[in-house]
Amino acid sequence: MKNKYKILTGIVLFTAFIACTNESNTITDNNSKVKVMKDNFWNLQSSDILLAKDVGKYIDIYAPKDFFTVVSAQKTDPLQDVFYTAYSGITENTAKTQSAVIKENPFSVSINGMKIKSIDDNVTLSDKEEKEYLSSLYGKNVKFLISNVNRTQSALGSDTTVNMYVPEEIEIFSPSVLTKEDMYPLCYYENFILRWNADDNNENGVAIVVTWTGSMAFGQDHPNISIRRTDVIPDNGSAVLNSHLFDDIPDTGIVLLTLARGNVENIGLEDGYYKYQILSETHATLPLILIRNINKISEDETGEE
Questions:
Q1: Pairing outcome for strands 227-233 and 47-50
Q2: Which SS3 state, helix, strand or coil, does residue 245 take?
Q3: Of 93, 158, 168, 203, which has the fewest CB atoms closer than 10 Å, so is most exposed?
Q4: Is the pTM value of this prediction over 0.85?
């Protein structure tokens, strides 16, 4: 599966209050005496590591498939509106596509009666009515109806119905970003508390993906580096993140933290000849500046009382 932003030195005093003792891992006071110190990171290797020993239902996403349907609700940063989309398509590089058995998608898909467009049509479901319809699916059990549009009249009764729970849209509550001035919060890498809206009906857990592509808030960027760490945890609305999610990411690195949850079903069509996957997902992304080293400037040094 292919896949897919106040430096001063002073007397060194490593502080722990950033480590969520006040249920916040974010430096929010612009006048704070806490300043960021930089380290030099050498010989960093690009890597993609899964921390979770068991990803549960999400392992089914990687099952072989000839066709797929995706329902997605994504928020690319905390101040953006949710982008909804739904589409179906053909998986590239399967044995059937390579042998030209599959030349076009013969399956028509509807969700609770609404027909889903093929990705081949390059159609984005973005008008108001479609957004409202897709948003109404989240947090509910919905029905996917799959029909072979090329089927003969004698086989019209063999449409396939899949009932699936589509988890509630996910939203990151803390660290909180409510205005442009709040963007790119400074977050300490240890005892990092993340809060979101829990979904009691989601048994699949949530995936946490931390990505760093070499961008730095201070100092030289590292454009040839790509670091991604992924973990899967229970969907209970709050967690202290595994600090290893931030391994190999330097102080003041600009990080994208993505929180996601979803559901997936793999079925056989036409007596199992074709493999079909239905995926529903919702994710939210928080851009932040990672903090590793913290110095507290003494009142004597700053001249403050």
A1: parallel
A2: helix
A3: 93
A4: no
